[in-house]
Amino acid sequence: MMLALIFIWLHLVPSFVFGNGYNLTIEEDLEIERQLKLLNKPAIKTIIENGDIYDCVDIYKQPAFDHPSLKHHKIQLRPSYYPKGLFDENSLNSSKLMHVGLQSERCPKGTVVIKRVRKEELIMGMRSTLKHSKMMMMHSSSSSSPNLVHINSFEQQWAIWHTPYGENYEYYGASAFINVYGLPQLTNTQFSSAFFWIGNDDDDKDHSDQLVIGWTVDDSVYGDKNTRLATSWTDDGFRRTGCVDMRCPGFVQVSQDIPLGIAIKPVSTYNGPQYGVHISVFKDPATLNWWFVYGSEKKLVGYWPNKLFTNLSKRATKLHFGGTAGFEGYPDAGLPPMGSGHFPDEGANKACVFQQIKYINAAQQSLNLPIDELYPLSSYPNYYKVGPLTNSSGTQDTFYFGGPGGPVSS
Fold it and tell me: Which parts form a coiled-coil structure per UniProt (predicted)?
């Protein structure tokens, strides 16, 4: 009798309050629990650092292999080949390049480190209807007529350098040193990021394939205002496929100490100590997988298997480098700061910087992007700007970007 009364009560009560005032229906709560079970695999060991929980998961039982295309995937433990010249100039920023990864210990051999997803994070993601748009590359038919994202209560702006758009261009990877800043002043509806984007949607417009790699501050995704190492991927512009970090099956983790989504500390300060990350992503010529490698020491983080993609399974046709910022929800707080929160003309140690920008060609060579084949784009120049490409140690590979943001115009 008691069980029957409880069953009836559960169906009569439409929702209940969880945590920070989120109203969940019973069906939503059950779905969240189901997703948590899928994402958070059984841990052989658990490590807690800076308030985050990291699970050491059997490398063969990680979430990637829940993807239907990866059921029989053979794990690639290391790239078959490194692009020529990719790591030759990392010493330029050796004093600024920071260690990213677990500080106290690494996961045991045979396991990989995966940041545990908290229930609150999934709830915020579920209620965020445009949660992936904030990582999308700028879609534009030309550099002079961008299509800004401004949908209902969602607004996003860019300050980037980008390659031309067109199927005649081909890229097999990219790399850059990205200055890292903290932006604790952001509200829980604002986001601000520094990324590079690798994309291809020229052969099949239904498959807007892209990889996004860099850092972000996004309370609505991570539940705090830490600056975090962030990635995302999609095969169709985030309509049905892809996600941030490892929040859906896809990315194959191989690192025992560098998890996606980890907080980056310390961060740069205005006119003070400067820090940054050096990130490389390239297509393995043998397996065609897209590898993510960190720093001059060639630390292997993992890879996106070639089977995840349609257009990127062949090559990329566009690259973007720079920042994006915006908000979702009520625009009361306006557009947030981007980069360091200062315009690029303030220069070194004050504005956020990209350096050592490279692309990988079909011959697996790491090369400077030709200056005459890059275009600057500042979608809201009153608030955000991208500075000129300048010469750094003999190569034209440096630019500053960012701005303070400001109120949203009516």
Answer: none
